[in-house]
Amino acid sequence: MCKTALHEFLHGLPKCEHHLHVEGSLSPALLFQLAKTNKITLPVSGDSSFASISSLQARYERFTSLDDFLHYYYIGMSVLLTAGDFESLAYEYFSHAHRDGVHHAEIFFDPQAHTSRGIAYTTVVAGLSAAQRRAEADFGLTSKLILCFLRHLPASEANTTYAEASRLGHFSDGTVAGIGLDSSEVDFPPELFTEVYTSAKDAGIRRTAHAGEEGDTSYIEKALDICNVERIDHGIRMVEDETLLKRVAKNKMLVTVCPLSNVQLKCVTTVAELPIRRFLDEGIRFSINSDDPAYFGGYILDNYCAVQESFELSVAEWKYIAAGAIEGSWCDQARKETLLRKVDEYVAKYA
Ligand SMILES: Nc1ncnc2[nH]cnc12
Ligand SMILES: [Zn+2]
Fold it and tell me: Is Transferase there in the keyword field (predicted)?
């Protein structure tokens, strides 16, 4: 198949996205619009990046590390105030994901980044849930929310956020599907959050964590051994430890890879450096995701195409990736079977 035909194939291939920070889908256009509506003054002194949409976009092309990006990410989300703002944000993401061929999305949100600014947890969740309902009604796109704890903040604050979501019944009624761990990785290892992860495990709540993005393999090991995660976000550094790689493959644990993010944040120099071929050879189950698409120059389809350009995968290998992404999702079995059937029918047309 020629390059154009393969991109067309990737466009129509039924996709699941599992690694998407909804706050990272805040486009510069929506950021400036909400800043104006909500009368938020963006910090222009000392950093002219916020002077205009184009200067901000230009700055996004020069991130030097995860922390350099996070600086802009946290300022950006300060324009989100009302449930309507969160709904607009998430609906804009779902619309783009639908256009890219996403059928099921499991999206991260960072409640502490909002409650610390005086925005109620319930405001955030009300807006995101409304967008989820609209996306399912309008596009048939199903979705889940994953509540992330910010690892640069004290673990006691993660416990407080977890307690609020639990008290509201958000884990038991399905409003929130699971927990995650994000923000600055190095110096904030997963074991700092043992207490909240143990409570979640005891309560039967799904668990994932960012590990092995900038941090070494010990972050992945600790996430597995101490936090009992069922999924690993990024995890690209697991190839540095053969035993770990085999363990993740054997347990059919989903690894959520984010190619363009890893390049933009200088975790790798090029997409070709990512362990995609190694993951396929070892039988690792993984999905391909956009992480923070408004900041990293591409949504999910751009990430699929970037992988294709570097690795020239076959239709059979893409079918393996699409099926693995469905099997590693946290939706119910009936939904998984529907999606697996869609992949089978779609790929059959290209056989
Ligand atoms: N790539 C990433 N790593 C850690 N925390 C994040 N928050 C948003 N994007 C992130
Ligand atoms: Zn991430």
Answer: no
